[in-house]
Amino acid sequence: MGNGRKVEAVVRVNCSLGEGPHWDGGSQSLVFTDILNATVYRYHPVTGQLSSTLVPRVEGVGFIVPVDGRDGEYIVGGDKSFIWLHWDGSDGGGKVKQILDTVHENPGNRLNDGKADPFGRLFAGKSPWTMGSETSPGVFAQEQGALYLLSPTTGKAEKKVEGVTLSNGLCWSQDSSHFFYIDSVLRKVDAFDYDPLTVSLSNRRTVFHMPSHLPEKAVPDGMTIDATGRLYVATFFGSRILVIDAEEGREIEEIKLPVENVTSCTWGGENLDQLYVTSAAKFTDLTTYPESGFIYKIMGLGSRGFDGVKAKIPILAQP
């Protein structure tokens, strides 16, 4: 592709709904989920090693975030629950240690994208289960979900944003003063003022609308941010990553991929200058897009991002 960009398929597995990429700088590895198959993966780029495990007793896994200071320990979003998972990285080796909390509101919803803020506090939102949970074709029950914080002290979920339909991308500015958020059905990116002392969100406003030249069904999905503050937004039904200047509310660049459903992205590599991208084999024509569900690496972007932040959950250290 032009401008020195290079897109390479690095994990050739047709994930039904690949999501939740998280780069672990300590092990130089990428963890991610296949939501609809309740499976988590770990990929080591240097060796090419790929391992996976089912998360027991759940139907779907929305996210996976390592726990700070505890090798082989993760928080995953299993169905409606925040789950403490032990996984040594071996195939099939995952074991549920504890269900920390279950969000019982709106039984048709599940936990979707989750990520820790720069201080290790874990946020995750809810979304409808799949497109099978539409009230009619293309229409979801509106504003039935929310964005939650998993309290580091109690291990319980606290509601932070209400009236959400399909919670997706989330990231923070480098100075932690702003939080960026996507409710996919709104087809836009919003920003909040973020107070890291009180963990409060305020002054919600829209910083970007989906461009009109994309298909009407294309929606923003997962998202990350680079060191300059630019947002990188995956587009489901859009076949691309949108690079956005959030301050000016404009698109800077589009990076096209050989799949229809681009789901999320995160920075990785030794210098954090490679963008890892997840995709989905569900809800697409595999004859037209045979590489759907693969994990991609984009190089030559001329920018870099941040290491994935691990979840700091002090209550897990208690007997």
Automatic annotation (TrEMBL):
Question: Can you say where in the cell this protein is located?
Answer: Cytoplasm
Signal sequence: where?
Answer: none
Its main subcellular localisation, reduced to a broad class, is cytoplasm
Active-site residues? Answer: 221
Q: Which cofactor does it need?
A: Ca(2+); Mn(2+); Zn(2+); Mg(2+)
List residues binding a divalent metal cation: 19, 168, 221
Into which family does the record put it? Belongs to the SMP-30/CGR1 family.
Question: Mind telling me what this protein is named?
Answer: Regucalcin
Instruction: Give the source species.
Output: Darwinula stevensoni
